[in-house]
């Protein structure tokens, strides 16, 4: 229902596909839901197909992972999604770049809060190491088989994951380690 | 307790003048009373320390205050084989011919040969060290003077700016992002504005686009000369430092004249720019272009042709194109490795396809190439700036959509509608449609991306910043591997991380 209303209100969300859709071009991506928004192609692989889809894209010339981040949709579950796809609380958003095609492709993977685990992209793109650590640190989504799944921005003994929507901003006392002072 | 403290003191025993001396200093300076107070404090902490051994206690205190736990680098003997393989690049999916080069490192495998024989030690570079360009801490495992392994530990400047962005309207957002990469604030604002405009679907008038291009390029110049300055200082050329700051000041003066501030301008905003360029800007910009073009030749005399500088930078910190791409490195690091990838040229934004400039690439991918790429990028930026001065279109400097940009101040006195628009814009802001966009630009440090999720309200539901410094920092262990400690400073400097952007 949500998808329908959005699609009719904004023709830009779906449609206007045609030129340069990787999803249409690659046989390995058959069945992966696709959406277009403002000229960007967005793929929605399931958790099971996440690694194969990324590997297929890498084989098709997307040799660099530009960006990997997460979104916590806790207070905005009714977002526009392709038909037949159930939105989960967390989404991992991956932007892959192809130098030969001169374009990005974006992947949005649904990750439920009850089982916030996703396989790591480290062995396909070693450059995602810091990005996945950042997502783990700020959202608490764990990347299995990641070589160094530690916090990166927050101190190691910090409690909670600050970018989650249910993290109390301004209500948490500063958690810095107790400092006995200089004397 | 004692079992825990023992390895700490043992590991720290090689720190020059550690345990004993410090305890002695403290005792001599503070006197008996102070020691007693400190003991009380420890008791309250519930450490359960016996307090007899003042040195061990201090070590423990030191450890408790500074440790980052698992985020730190462990000695090679305490690290498992798989992790070592990963660090060496053995699992990188590289082409056959590139892999051995990665494996052996820049010094032909000297670092690997050192593994396992003899004692290694871990030292901290930073977080408080002038050559780490902010509060960057790099843990280095050394054997003698050779860096075997390294790991950057970041987060000391983390202030949750992505979380802050969720509480600011789209109009206010530019003031937030401009503070991230504080050496190229206008580029931050540009990435933010392009993302918001992509979300809104607004088309900019040509003058706004060209003003943005001018400011972005001037900012690139100031950022690169600033880098040249700090890089010079790291290589003990204080003259270069003074020169670089002098040139940067010229650009910042123009920024102050145009935007009102030297840094953190909030000048490029969604919908255009905050104000038109000041009268006589063509002369100011031409003077900047002419002066800096001349000064670059002085840099060449000072550094480029200088044998000591060449010897300290050539062949140091080499990274190849495959490894750079695998590490998602962008900007001068990637281009120095020989990959001609510049978003201004490859995926043009603003009006970059209408101006004439070259993408500078290196051949070796060493520290010298990164220096040369940046220096010549300044020259290309000057070329662009000169073309902008010649071809600046006339017209509006912002979109005439009063839902996005404020009306002129004078209109507010005459028009009720203008007053309403002004009030609405600065209290509530505008509400872009639901959706999510990623916009990227070529900042002086590489690909600067802004990912915004909108839920249809006046504030972004989520804002993510793809900071090039944060991503480029991953290449540091690969660059440092097998180099000398003295070169590590030069290599770190050549990566040009800005910690405000790394930690956000």
Describe this protein's structure.
The complex is a heterodimer of chains A (183) and B (504). Chain A is of the alpha/beta class and 183 residues long. Chain A is 18% helix and 22% strand. Chain A contains 4 helices and 7 strands. The radius of gyration of chain A is 19 Å and the shape is globular. Chain A starts with a helix and ends in a 39-residue tail after the last strand. By secondary structure, chain B is mainly alpha-helical. Chain B has 3 domains: 66 residues, no CATH class; 84 residues, no CATH class; 343 residues, Orthogonal Bundle (Cytochrome-c3 Hydrogenase, chain B). Chain B contains 23 helices and 8 strands. In chain B, the strands form 3 sheets. In chain B, strands 1-2-3 form a 3-stranded antiparallel β-sheet. In chain B, strand 2 and strand 3 form a beta hairpin. The radius of gyration of chain B is 26 Å and the shape is globular. Chain B starts with a helix and ends with a helix.
Chart the SSEs and their pairings:
The complex is a heterodimer of chains A (183) and B (504).
Chain A: H1 2-9, H2 22-25, E1 34-37, E2 40-43, H3 50-59, E3 64-72, E4 90-98, E5 103-111, E6 117-119, H4 129-139, E7 142-144
Parallel strand pairs in A: 2-5, 6-7
Antiparallel strand pairs in A: 1-2, 3-4, 4-5
Chain B: H1 2-12, H2 19-45, H3 54-66, H4 81-88, H5 99-104, H6 110-114, E1 121-125, E2 137-143, E3 146-153, H7 161-165, H8 170-177, H9 185-200, H10 206-234, H11 238-259, E4 268-269, E5 272-273, H12 281-304, H13 307-313, H14 321-326, H15 332-336, H16 343-346, H17 367-391, H18 409-414, H19 416-427, E6 435-443, E7 446-454, E8 462-466, H20 468-472, H21 476-480, H22 485-495, H23 499-503
Antiparallel strand pairs in B: 1-2, 2-3, 4-5, 6-7, 7-8
Task: Summarize the entry for a quick read.
Chain A is an alpha/beta fold and 183 residues long.
The SS-based structural class of chain A is alpha/beta
CATH architecture of chain A: 2-Layer Sandwich
Low confidence ranges of chain B: 1-51, 90-111
The total tally of domains of chain A equals 1
Strand % of chain B is 5-15%
Could you give the order of strands across the largest sheet of chain A? Answer: 1-2-5-4-3
What is the fold-level CATH name, i.e. the topology of the largest domain in chain B? Cytochrome-c3 Hydrogenase, chain B
Helix content estimate of chain A: 10-25%
Multimeric organization: heterodimer
Largest sheet of chain A: 5 strands, mixed
Q: What is the CATH homologous superfamily assignment of the largest domain in chain B?
A: Cytochrome-c3 Hydrogenase, chain B
**Rounded radius of gyration of chain B (Å):** 26 Å
